[in-house]
Amino acid sequence: MTVPAAFPWRLVLLCCGAEILTMLGFALVPTLLPTFTAEWGLSATEGGWLGGVFFLGYITAVPLLVSLTDRYDARRIYLLAASLSALALAAFALFARSFVPGLLCWLVAGFGLAGTYMPGLRALTDRLPVAFQSRGTAFYTASFGTGAGLSYLLLEGLGRLLPWPLLFALAAAAVAAAVALIAFALPPKLPVTAAGSGDGGWRSVLRDRRILAFCGAYCGHNWELFGFRSWLVAYLTWSHLQTPSALTAAPGIVAALATFLAVPASILGNEGAHRWGRTVWLRRVMNLSAAMALLVALMGNVGGHGWWAMVLLLAYAATMNLDSAAMTAGLLTETPPDRRGKALALYACIGFAGGFVGPVAFGMALDAFGRHGVGGWSAGFVTLALGIGLARLSIGLVDKKGPAAT
User: Fold this and answer.
1) Confidence band, pLDDT 50/70/90 cuts, at residue 193
2) CA distance 371 to 369
3) Domain 9-191: CATH class, spelled out
4) pTM given for the model
5) Residue ranges in 248-323 assigned as alpha helix (H)
6) Of 47-56, 115-124, 323-332, 351-360, minimum mean pLDDT range
7) Residue 204 is inside which H or E element, if any?
8) At what angle do helices 117-125 and 324-333 cross, to 10 degrees?
9) Among 9, 164, 287, 392, which is least packed by CB within 10 angstroms?
């Protein structure tokens, strides 16, 4: 009788720990944007560019950096990109005293994320037995939310005690620690495709209907997720002005809690996909998330309804993450190794394009319906339902017949 191998906890915790360290600076610019606006005399447009250029850097660099993991050990790409990210954060601390230097430093930090998040996932899964790749992916993608939540939480506490350049310096030190951790604790390994001879070209990826369906679904997921996270603190601040409440008095704490809820939700979501079938599960939880977004839209002012409204808002924050790991694990496990890097590159690029569109669509709804009234904020949450609706339409194509990986 064959004894099943034990889950490789040490390897998974190593990669997840490094990912968390690289994410500790994630909320720096969004949280400090009011400070930069005042100190640097930024217009609203300049503030928007400073906040969004991080994801522009990510989208620009991710197709190249992630696709290279088909040819080179993802560990090497991770180490180079993480080092670049640490330098960008240190440069922000030392030299960013106006709009243009800050914009350039934060753009380069986005390049760094492009070379650490998905390449880190590839470095992990290339070292995992096939039987453990799906669960390993769930833990790793959950660590993104853990790092982001810790970033908000630490800034809520340290932001009042330390000058902002020191906060960037501490984030740079955290990324440098991740570099050391991966360099000394994760052994080199040839990529899985080095021993194969499959066609890993872009054409085969772009013709695969399943890959494109997962990419579209990830775009809609990130539209909803980053639209919600980008406007959550502002929404709670507005709600507190309308109806002062202890529940909305510390919006940074609520934002951190909402982000932390992504961790168990993402892991449990992947387990649900194992139990009920991936596409069945994804369709159900995406429908649920759209319904929750519309409920929050109908609720309007969270502070005016008491504790149950905050529970509903946090439940929605958890619900929108029930699909994340299940989608990423599906893409990885159902794509042949020789084209996995390019598939991840396309997935990340299209997905984080949704992360850019979501906050913009929410803001446009606020401008159209009034950012100082309930109607504007309700319309903003309706745009989140539209985003996850796009994901639901895309995931419906996963099981349809079409050109498939061979």
Assistant:
1) low
2) 7
3) mainly alpha
4) 0.80
5) 251-260, 262-276, 278-299, 307-319
6) 47-56
7) helix 202-206
8) 60
9) 9
Please state the length of the chain: 406
Domain layout of the chain by residue ranges: 9-191, 199-406
Instruction: Establish how many alpha carbons lie within 13 A of residue 367's alpha carbon, considering only the half-sphere containing its beta carbon.
Output: 6
**Between the CA of residue 83 and those of 8, 22, 185, what are the distances in Å?**
27, 10, 16
Q: What is the CA radius of gyration of the chain?
A: 21
- Residue 251 · residue 232 · CB < 8 Å: yes
CA 138 → CA 132, 192, 291, 322, 399, distances in Å?
Answer: 10, 20, 24, 11, 22
pLDDT in tens, 49-77: 787 788 888 888 988 898 888 888 999 99
When mean pLDDT is compared across 89-93, 180-184, 392-396, the lowest value belongs to: 392-396
Q: What is the mean pLDDT of residues 361-390?
A: 90
**DSSP secondary structure code for residue 338 in this structure:** G
Q: Which amino acid is at 151?
A: S
Share of the chain above pLDDT 70, in %: 93
Question: How many CB atoms sit inside 10 A of residue 132's CB?
Answer: 18
> DSSP of 347-372, one letter per residue?
HHHHHHHHHHHHHHHHHHHHHHH-TT
Q: How far is CA 74 from CA 79, 176, 396, in A?
A: 9, 18, 31
Domains 9-191 and 199-406 share a fold: yes
What is the CATH number assigned to the segment(s) 199-406?
A: 1.20.1250.20
Q: What is the pLDDT of residue 385?
A: 97
**155 vs 257: CA distance, rounded Å:** 13
CB atoms within 10 A of CB 46: 17
Closest to 313 in 3D by CA, of 255, 370, 358, 269: 255
Residue 276: both structure tokens together: 């009920």
HEC string for 311-329: HHHHHHHHHCCCCHHHHHH
Which residue matches tokens 């809820």? 261
Using the CB atoms, write b or e for 183-200: b if 16+ within 10 Å.
Answer: eeebeeeebbbeeeeeeb
Q: Using CA atoms, how far apart are residues 283 and 269, in angstroms rounded to an integer?
A: 12
